[in-house]
Amino acid sequence: MKKTSLAIILACFGLAMMAQETIKVKYQGAKPTISDFAWSYLSVAALDDDGCINEADNAFKQAWIKQRKGQKLDKGETLTIDKKNGYVCYESRYENDMLRIEMCYWNEADGKHKLVAYNVASYRNGKYEPGQFDGLYFYRYTNATKKMTMYQVPGFDAVYGKDGYYVYFDLPRTGKNITANYMNIETKKLNPKTLKWTGSKFKF
Fold first, then answer.
1. Which residue in 154, 166, 171 sits closest to 119, CA to CA?
2. What is the pLDDT of residues 163-178, one digit of tens each?
3. Which residue, among 176, 171, 136, has the nearest Cα to 156 in the 3D structure?
4. Using CA of residue 80, residue 68, residue 60, residue 25, what is the dihedral sign?
5. If you write DSSP's letter for every residue of 10-22 in order, what string do you get?
6. SS3 content of the chain, % helix, strand, coil (to 5)
7. In sequence order, what are the beta bridge partners of 191?
8. What are the tens digits of pLDDT across the range 21-34?
9. Going by DSSP bridges, is the β-strand pair 97-107/87-94 parallel, antiparallel, or unpaired?
10. Is the pLDDT of residue 88 over 90?
11. Contact, 135 vs 120, CB < 8 A?
12. Which residues contact 204 (CB under 8 A, 6 or more apart)?
């Protein structure tokens, strides 16, 4: 994919996210957990500014609601909520296709903010295959306001702009670093790179 095509896909996804640029995080206890961040996001997710359904968000949201009610998830679905490690992963498989949505968060070094990541990736036959809603997006949570706002993390823009490659991401369930996977469009060969979290930004 050319850089221009990637930019178009990212722009389209960004437009779908406009309705939830700032989200109030509701929680009980001393501080929010990954479940609080995820449900706060999902509570306002699934619709864009034009009232169109974001199918990825909606699938994740419906699975979360079912699990909260103790109901069985649909065939091919799994939902992992790891509060200890601050990580959530939803997967939906149908025939040769799989949708994966991850969320996690980091405590920032200033003690006043948390960085929340929301990652969507689509696969076919075990290989990455870009979907309409794919992308990695960040929110910055402010302890004082109890709100999270869409955020451009310093240093992260360096991962884009490599022609001839798709780039998709794996969030950490343990540890602090993100893996950026560069897949050659022609050969499908992967070249993973590590994005190191410094406490306030990512170092590529």
1. 171
2. 999 999 999 999 999 9
3. 136
4. negative
5. HHHHHHHTGGGSE
6. 25, 40, 40
7. 182
8. 899 999 999 999 99
9. antiparallel
10. yes
11. yes
12. 155, 156, 158, 159, 180, 193, 195, 196
